[in-house]
Design brief:
The structure holds two protein chains of two kinds. Chain A is mostly helical. Chain A is built from 22 helices and no strands. The two termini of chain A are 16 Å apart. By secondary structure, chain B is α/β, with parallel strands linked by helices. Chain B is 48% helix and 13% strand. The chains are: A mainly alpha, B alpha/beta.
Chain lengths: 467, 418
């Protein structure tokens, strides 16, 4: 069951209704049941592995009070478990991962590790309720692709309290729009170009260069919106993952806005311990900590050369950004006339540097990424026809919808029309409120119809589902 | 003044209601405009309920066909996927009536690209030097079975006085001539039984209530309105989609709740329905074939009565005209047959025995497909479905050639009268 399937939405509705009918005391148990039922549709053996890991980690959490040394061992074992599957995926037959690839392994492994380390560092007490703990690990809105919620934040929301339904539903609808209207319409052109990289040059490569990050953002942030909205419907609010990342005017700013639940996780559990250990090494220690952290971000996606290159490239960006930060701030303080131009240039530079890194993220091999970057300028003059052919074959119409949709996404996130509409609604006269109701009903019918006609029955996986 | 206050409050209520209604209309207009700007089309309904045929094309309806193409359809005032035709046959005109189901309707391509239009142009070009022209009338309707095609011929065709009637035969509807392969699932389709060699409506067909004309007018108006609005067409399409998906979801939920091991058929094994469409000698379909042949005889009789020439043209079965011979061979192997032309051959023999001209399209279309490595059905990547523009074009050319060469009515028309 994927989040864009009508069956998932029906399942979610059923869960929301039953969760509300359930007495508060039984809601955690209900969430656990619903989560495992969802997980079982993916793979019963994978569900069994998840249950075993949950039991072991829960027991270890309780034992940590007496055996502190257990924490690092368990954290390492969980990391090894995650890496084993990632390594297995590199083999031709995919080894054990070919037999049982646990859904959301990268996400729940990080949840388990953060629980062990948080208990070990005394940030949270060991959870006494197995039900609560198992519900946290298996919570189905988050298991597919995050966001990676911290244990303390999750447990504080138990037992889940009923929430107002409108905002979560709008959030899910917005996520579906991002995925189905934007990402899925940009995908054919991106896939076609990345699928034939070495036979293309010039204009089509520029198109892929600019389109893929937009597709990725729409796809992943759409997935996150559905996950957060679904969690809220069940009474658990997850952390945010994005904050208009492509408006960042520095690389560090970008990483504070992109896949925030993963980056903050790695900052807390990788970067900070390393930084503390290497603080005496000054700038070298800082650079080393950043490099390890960014490489970890890259390799979390998979143990491939292109993800490693993605991590290293971002590490290089971030080291330069961090080490020159003070000097840049000083320059702009002394030359305020340059400040405005600087932020524009910073945005333009950040935008392109990130897009260069995303080429490595999308390419199956480093050589493909290098081909794309190396042939952007070659034969540019005559490559318009090639681009026209690609666009014709993959659907000019779809691409236009995807691009217009992306423009709406950026403008919507910049100007937040939902906020002023809400203000208008609460302050407006009665007829306006009625108009809101009727328009809301019509918009819902339109959204549902579009969803059923264009998406139902199709299985276009989210890009981040595979991690 | 409580009354005045009441009145004011009432006025305010209605004024708010009107404003809200106007705002709702505005919202509807915005959505409609958005959908039109997005340029996506949604399937329209061009059908209506009928008493005799069960259903037919709705006169003067218009809308989009998007399932296998993106074509704006217009149905003429007599319920044909055709342009307006004078009832009276114009002088020096050879009229050919084509009856059949979706292949004849050819809504996958624009009107000028249908094989009927191609035929019309080709034949007119050849007849013009003698001062004649050809008029090929499209009586096809998607989903039609032989019973409906027979009723079309009997009740709708003759007023146009065609000299030639072509039944575009497709083997799939053979299974719909009896209820045994579709128990309870033939809906409004009339079914005839073979009694003492004659075709008579079965009990279910006899008991079908006649269409309520007043209600039909309303449902047609609503259907026309839905075709006019993109928003309403979309909502209607989603309703259809749900009805298609419901059994799939039900099966998935059922298999999750009680997984039962089922025998897994090889993925390339043809379905029983496909086997029945390619092999006319499957024992369980012999009765259906007997009924089918009775329809042919009844149509021939009708044509003889009206002095028209009756042709059966067998449509190809997709794979018969695949440009890749290895695909054909693999499919033939999966069927366990030594030919893919068994249906054509059976009908050819029947035609010879009954004095009916039979023309199999598979041969000329196959020759063209191989020579040009062209796919005549559907679109890439699977090339399934009905004839595409090339398929229609080649069908039109082949039929025009065959008619000009073989039709006695054409010969008669071209023979100078003393």
């Amino acid at each position: 069951m994927t989040f864009t399937e009508p069956l998932f939405l029906l399942y979610l509705v059923l869960c929301v209704v039953l969760n509300r009918l359930c007495p508060a005391r039984g809601r955690a148990a209900f969430l656990l049941l619903a989560s495992y039922a969802f997980y079982l549709t993916w793979s019963p053996p994978a569900a069994a592995i998840l249950a075993i890991l949950t039991l072991v980690t829960f027991a270890a959490g309780l034992a940590l009070a007496k055996a502190q040394a257990l924490a690092p061992v368990l954290a390492i074992l969980l990391t090894v478990y995650l890496m084993a599957f990632k390594v297995a995926l590199l083999t031709p037959s995919h080894g054990i991962a070919g037999l049982i690839m646990p859904l959301g392994i990268s996400y729940y492994s990080f949840k388990l590790i953060s629980y062990v380390l948080d208990v070990h560092w005394g940030k949270i007490p060991a959870e006494k309720s197995l039900l609560n703990f198992a519900a946290y690990i298996a919570f189905f809105p988050q298991i597919v692709a995050g966001p990676i919620q911290r244990p303390g934040d999750f447990f504080a929301q138990l037992p889940p309290k009923p929430v107002h339904l409108v905002n979560p539903i709008l959030r899910i609808a917005w996520g579906l729009v991002k995925k189905l209207m934007i990402a899925d319409n940009l995908a054919p052109a991106v896939n076609a170009i990345y699928g034939h990289l070495t036979s293309l040059h010039g204009a089509p490569l520029w198109a892929a260069f600019y389109l893929f990050p937009l597709q990725l953002y729409a796809d992943f942030s759409g997935l996150t919106d559905i996950a957060i909205g679904s969690g809220q419907l069940l009474g658990v609010t997850g952390p945010e993952n994005f904050d208009r990342p492509f408006t960042a005017s520095s690389i560090s700013g970008f990483w504070r806005r992109w896949h925030m639940s993963l980056t903050t996780w790695l900052v807390d559990y990788v970067f900070m311990p390393l930084r503390m250990a290497s603080r005496r090494a000054g700038a070298w220690g800082l650079s080393f900590s950043i490099a390890v952290n960014m490489v970890a971000i890259g390799l979390w996606h998979g143990l491939t050369g292109s993800y490693l290159a993605f991590g290293l490239l971002n590490a290089a960006y971030l080291i330069v950004d961090t080490l020159t930060n003070k000097r840049r701030a000083k320059f702009f303080k002394q030359n305020p006339a340059w400040d405005r131009a600087g932020s524009w240039l910073g945005w333009l530079l950040t935008f392109h540097l990130i897009f260069i890194a995303e080429v490595f993220f999308r390419s199956p091999h480093v050589s493909d990424a290098l081909w794309l970057l190396g042939h952007l300028a070659s034969g540019l003059a005559g490559s318009g026809e090639l681009l026209r052919q690609v666009v014709e074959e993959t659907g000019r119409h779809a691409l236009a919808i995807g691009l217009v949709g992306y423009l709406i996404l950026e403008l919507g996130e910049r100007f937040r029309p939902d906020l002023w509409l809400r203000e208008l609604y609460s302050a407006g006269p009665r007829w306006l409120r009625w108009s809101f109701y009727s328009s809301g009903v019509m918009a819902s019918i339109l959204a549902l119809a579009l969803f059923l006609v264009h998406a139902a029955g199709k299985r276009a996986p989210f890009l981040y589902e595979i991690f | 003044m409580p009354l005045a206050r009441e009145l004011r409050s009432c006025m305010k209520f209605f004024s708010d209601l009107i404003r809200a209604a106007l705002a709702t209309c505005l919202m509807f207009a915005v959505m409609e405009a958005g959908l039109r700007l997005a340029g996506t089309h949604y399937e329209s309904s061009t059908y209506q309920r009928e008493t005799e045929r069960g259903f037919g094309l709705r006169p003067n309806s218009q809308g989009w066909e998007v399932e296998e193409g993106d074509v704006y359809l217009t149905i003429n005032s007599d319920g044909m996927r055709d342009k307006e035709r004078p009832i009276e046959r114009p002088p020096h005109t050879l009229r050919v009536a084509v009856i059949g189901s979706s292949e004849a309707d050819a809504r996958q391509v624009g009107f000028d690209d249908t094989f009927e239009s191609v035929m019309s142009r080709d034949m007119t070009r050849s007849l013009a030097p003698r001062g004649w022209q050809a008029d090929v009338l499209n009586f096809g309707a998607p989903g039609y079975t032989f019973s409906q095609e027979y009723l079309t011929l009997r009740d709708h065709v003759w007023k146009y006085q065609p000299q030639v009637v072509i039944l575009l035969f497709s083997s799939f509807p053979v299974q719909k001539t009896t209820r045994e392969f579709y128990p309870g699932d033939l809906g409004m389709v009339p079914v005839f039984e073979l009694r003492n060699g004659n075709l008579e409506p079965d009990e279910i067909t006899k008991q079908m209530p006649p269409v309520n004309l007043k209600r039909l007018r309303w449902t047609n108006r609503i259907a026309d309105l839905m075709n006019t609005s993109y928003f309403l067409s979309l909502v209607n399409s989603s309703r259809v989609k749900v009805s298609e998906l419901l059994p799939v979801w039900r099966a998935r939920v059922k298999s999750f709740i009680s997984p039962t091991p089922t025998a897994v058929a090889p993925s390339d094994a043809p379905s029983p329905s496909t086997v029945r469409s390619f092999n006319p000698y499957v024992p369980e379909t012999q009765h259906a074939w007997d009924v089918t042949e009775a329809y042919f005889r009844a149509m021939k009789y009708q044509c003889d009565e009206h002095g028209a020439e009756f042709w059966i043209v067998t449509s190809d079965l997709g794979v018969q005209v695949d440009p890749d011979l290895s695909v054909r061979a693999a499919f033939q192997r999966s069927l366990g047959m030594n030919t893919l032309d068994a249906v054509d051959e059976r009908i050819q023999r029947f035609g010879e025995a009954q004095g009916i001209h039979v023309f199999a399209l598979a041969k000329p279309l196959s020759d063209y497909a191989i020579a040009h490595h062209a796919y005549l059905h559907g679109a890439a990547p699977d090339h399934g479905g009905h004839w595409n523009a090339i398929g229609n074009e080649q069908t039109g050319h082949a039929l025009a050639r065959e008619l000009l060469d073989q039709s006695t009515e054409v010969r008669k028309a071209l023979t100078p009268k003393p």
